[in-house]
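Retro notes (design track)

What went well: tokenization of the new backbones is finally stable.
What didn't: we kept losing track of which sequence belonged to which structure.
Fix going forward: every design gets posted as structure first, then sequence, in one message. First example under the new rule, 126 residues:
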């Protein structure tokens, strides 16, 4: 359950990064419209300015840097999902091996106890 939940959280983080930065950044880069608004009320990828909380749209270089950083973050998030899924597979495999070993030990112990009990009862009869 832990692995699945953590994978889901990472997928959601990846989705948010994709929708917030990558899609918007690709629209800006493919349109070639830097320092302008994309959609009514939606400013191109930007940072908050020093005065009045206004956002300054980023230029071409900065937009491409944000896009590259977002792609790197997304790649790391997806590698994290792969690591979690591999860890889950390993944990399940190890658990199955331990269960099989316990079953073998119990059957060996039962066979050993059964043969000594038969020998002891045979000696009593004799």
């Amino acid at each position: 359950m832990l692995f699945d939940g953590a994978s889901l959280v990472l997928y959601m983080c990846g989705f948010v990064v994709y929708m917030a930065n990558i899609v918007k950044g690709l629209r800006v880069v493919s349109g070639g419209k830097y320092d302008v608004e994309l959609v009514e009320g939606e400013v191109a990828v930007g940072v908050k300015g020093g005065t009045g909380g206004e956002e300054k749209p980023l230029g071409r270089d900065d937009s491409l840097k944000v896009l590259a950083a977002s792609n790197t973050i997304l790649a790391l998030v997806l590698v994290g999902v792969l690591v979690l899924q591999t860890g889950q597979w390993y944990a399940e495999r190890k658990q199955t091996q331990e269960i099989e070993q316990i079953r073998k030990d119990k059957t060996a112990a039962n066979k050993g106890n059964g043969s000594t009990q038969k020998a002891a009862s045979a000696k009593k009869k004799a």
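Added context from the reviewer: DSSP finds two helices and four strands in the chain.
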